[in-house]
């Protein structure tokens, strides 16, 4: 099983950006965590992070027929990007959304979520541990298809 983890803008600044909201773990900690999960769950996990919407869209498009599933933290693009939603729909790969913070309890403008229309499940507010929940859920989903 091969999964792609896609992270949107400012995820590369974990640990620096608003630690009261996002925690003290940095992006390298997240990547090490994904490597650990890859071994524990016996799956292949590739990862990608960009602050640029078009690069995220290109990566999703390039994932077609290469990955069994996608875990995505679109970050701020959650609330603005129809392009990312359309790319996910186009490749039609089972996708789980993850957010480090509890987005549903934050500012009003963060209550708009274009991505949720497509994904099979969303996890929010679990810190980087949410990636584990998302990956485990996606793995179980794919194994039961």
UniProtKB/TrEMBL annotation:
Cited function: Catalyzes a trans-dehydration via an enolate intermediate.
Pfam families, per the entry: DHquinase_II (PF01220)
Organism: Peptoniphilus stercorisuis
GO MF annotation terms: 3-dehydroquinate dehydratase activity
Keyword Ribosomal protein set for record: no
Protein origin, superkingdom: Bacteria
HAMAP family: AroQ
Quaternary structure (record): Homododecamer.
Gene3D superfamilies membership: Dehydroquinase, class II
Keywords: Amino-acid biosynthesis, Aromatic amino acid biosynthesis, Lyase
Top-level enzyme category: lyase
PROSITE patterns, per database record: DEHYDROQUINASE_II
Annotated residues for binding of substrate: 73, 79, 86, 100-101, 110
UniProt-annotated site: Transition state stabilizer, residues: 17
Family under the similarity heading: Belongs to the type-II 3-dehydroquinase family.
Active-site residues (renumbered): 22 (proton acceptor), 99 (proton donor)
PANTHER family in the cross-refs: CATABOLIC 3-DEHYDROQUINASE
Pathway participation: Metabolic intermediate biosynthesis; chorismate biosynthesis; chorismate from D-erythrose 4-phosphate and phosphoenolpyruvate: step 3/7
InterPro entries (UniProt xref): DHquinase_II, DHquinase_II_CS, DHquinase_II_sf
Transmembrane domains' residue ranges: none
Name the record gives this protein: 3-dehydroquinate dehydratase
Presence of the UniProt keyword Amino-acid biosynthesis in the record: yes
């Amino acid at each position: 099983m091969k999964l792609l983890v896609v992270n949107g803008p400012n995820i590369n600044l974990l640990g620096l950006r608003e630690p009261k909201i996002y925690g003290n773990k940095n992006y390298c900690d997240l990547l090490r965590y994904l490597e650990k999960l890859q071994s524990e769950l016996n799956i292949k996990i590739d990862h990608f992070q960009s602050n640029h919407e078009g690069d995220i869209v290109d990566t999703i498009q390039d994932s077609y027929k290469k990955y069994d599933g996608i875990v995505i933290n679109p970050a701020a693009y959650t609330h603005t990007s129809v392009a990312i939603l359309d790319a996910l729909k186009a490749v039609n790969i089972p996708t789980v959304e993850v957010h480090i913070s509890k987005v549903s309890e934050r500012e009003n403008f963060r209550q708009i979520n274009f991505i949720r229309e497509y994904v099979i499940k969303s996890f929010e507010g679990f810190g980087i541990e949410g990636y584990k929940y998302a990956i485990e859920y996606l793995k179980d989903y794919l194994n039961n298809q």
